Amino acid sequence: MTTLAIQDLSRQTGHLSRPLRNNEEVTLTYHGKPLARAVPVEQLEQERAELARLRELVVAHGIAA
Question: Which InterPro entries match (predicted)?
Fold first, then answer.
């Protein structure tokens, strides 16, 4: 996983796009603390599909939070 300081983002867009094109996550930081996570679209879609599948299992088995 790649980490990029948010203040460097405008000068170093390649540091953001390269890992994303290689299907890697990028964590954006602000003063050294994680602020946001950039993920490739394909990964995001897979994560959403998995969450939907888990929600369906919860409903099907009557599991409540």
Answer: YefM-like_sf
